[in-house]
Specification:
Blueprint (H helix, E strand, L loop, with lengths): L29 E9 L2 E8 L9 E10 L2 E12 L3 E4 L11 E8 L4 E3 L3 E2 L6 H15 L7 E2 L1 E4 L38 E4 L2 E3 L23 E6 L9 E4 L5 E13 L2 E11 L12 E2 L2
Parallel strand pairs: 11-17
Antiparallel strand pairs: 1-2, 2-5, 3-4, 3-6, 6-7, 6-8, 9-12, 10-11, 10-14, 12-13, 13-16, 14-15, 15-16
Length: 290
């Protein structure tokens, strides 16, 4: 088992995401913005670069329609703060829909920044989009020959309001057990909205640290677990996965893209390390994102 930040050591810490770069709508402010279709709407995910620390970010979401390059009918949907995801459930998905595009405006202290256009599934064509949806759906279905583990993903903050436990000069986190930043250096540590995330365990049975109620695996303990997980939402090292049945929490230490279409990750191979039971991450509340 592993204990908190900064003690979590990456087995292979990448300088950038392996296999492809998450570059949808990337600019000088946003690392990525991506939107996908869900059962009850269109879900957006984004990440802000660490350009303006020590502030709480405020986002305004806009939706428009791209009619052969002629953008029209922009609608302001909402303004939200300190989050990484938004569900647009105001649009009907029961019939063929036009080319929907989004923009996100980020309000900073002394300026505003509006993102580039954000297209569904990173701008894949209809055939690629349907193929991506099918692959993602298949990953979420139970595979009989491999243990399937239900849980939630906690996204680690990489920017925001700095915590007082962070050294002002070196930026190092001085207290990995801090209950204000949970060892991340940013207040609250992780975004409050957790998102469902299903793991497919691929490592040897002896390295899967879970209790399987169906009796397939029994109870075992180990330091690392290998698994596959759907490529959306994007996942990065130091994100946390929470097993829903047991509330056991795992730091994701290695992330490699193992399947993609035109640069859109569809499947990750990950390595997770279970946190010690007295780790501060167990104090973090779980709120399922809407």
């Amino acid at each position: 088992m592993v204990r908190g930040h900064p003690e979590v050591n990456l087995l292979n810490e990448p300088k950038e995401t392996l296999a492809s770069t998450l570059s949808w709508a990337e600019d000088e402010v946003f690392k990525y913005i991506i939107d996908i279709i869900e059962n009850n709407g269109i879900r957006l995910y984004w990440q802000v670069k660490d350009i303006s620390p020590n502030i709480t970010h405020q986002f305004t979401i806009y939706r428009g329609i791209d009619r052969d390059g002629d953008l029209a009918d922009w609608t302001e949907l909402t303004t939200i703060a300190d989050t990484w995801t938004y569900l647009d459930n105001t649009i009907s998905l029961s019939a063929p829909f036009p080319d929907i595009v989004y923009r996100i405006k980020l309000s900073l202290h002394n300026r505003e920044h509006t993102s580039d256009l954000v297209y569904l599934y990173g701008g894949l064509n209809p055939h690629q989009r349907n193929l991506a949806k099918a692959i993602l759906r298949k990953l979420k279905l139970c595979q009989r020959h491999l243990p399937v583990l239900k849980g939630y993903l906690l996204k680690r903050k990489h920017t925001g309001t700095l915590c007082t436990c962070r050294d002002p000069v070196t930026k190092e986190v001085l207290n990995s057990d801090c209950q204000e930043c949970f060892g991340t250096g940013f207040i609250s540590g992780y975004y409050l909205q957790a998102t469902p995330a299903t793991l497919i365990a691929t490592g040897p049975v002896s390295t899967i640290p879970i209790h399987d109620p169906k009796g397939q695996l029994g109870t075992v303990t180990a330091t690392a677990t290998q698994a596959k997980i759907a490529g959306l939402p994007p996942i990065f090292p130091y994100d946390v996965w929470v097993q829903s049945e047991t509330n056991r929490r795992y730091y994701i230490t290695v992330v490699k893209i193992s399947a993609e279409i035109s640069g859109l990750p569809l499947q990750y191979d990950v390595v997770l390390k279970m946190a010690n039971y007295n780790d501060v991450i167990y104090q973090y509340p779980i709120e399922i994102g809407q």
